[in-house]
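Supplementary Text 2. Reproducibility record for the structural model of the 212-residue chain.

All settings were left at their defaults, and a single model was retained for analysis rather than an ensemble. We include the record here because the model underlies the residue-level annotations in Supplementary Table 4.
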Amino acid sequence: MKHCLTLCLLFVLTGCGEPVARNQGVYMLIDTSGTYTEELGKAQQVINFTLARLNPGDTFAVASINTGSFSEKNIHAKVTFDDKPSVANRQKQAFQQSIDAFVKSAQPAAYTDITGGLLQAVEFLNEKQPGRKTILIFSDLKEEIKQGYNRDLPLSLNGFDLIALNVTKLNSDNVDPSEYLGRLQQWQEKVEQGGGSWRVVNDLERLERILP
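Retained model, structure tokens:
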């Protein structure tokens, strides 16, 4: 009898804990450096897929990676979806319109501040406090930092899933494949050292793998 009472008490105490957030937040970083702007059409494909998968209460933001990416000015569209389906549909349409405008006006950047973009993504999602935090990185992952910018700092990525998409091979990678493999390894180590999880999805025909 005493054992049963103990189990009941544990059940009651557990049931009274803080509710677990079931919503998710997705932040997508899009590389706009050099010739990678030619991939923006594929980025829109990923954005449209993500919009279709997200539910009421979920948050989505899309930002560009350029010379200096640690800035809210780099966010081109952001939304937390309403509980009403009709309102959420209008929000998704407005989001697509903002992305269309961004794609049409995007200019190639001289540098690729991926770390700054990640810092901005972490700050944004931590503020929204979703139950699941995902950062999509649409880039060839070759980071080039402008002189004078400090990006030599660790990333705090506990609870974050990072997914690299469409990691295209550069001309130099064709000459020396170890450069491509090295970039992937370096980013994986940096993310995992920060406590995050890391995946690469290059097959955009299998986008169901990026979100649950």
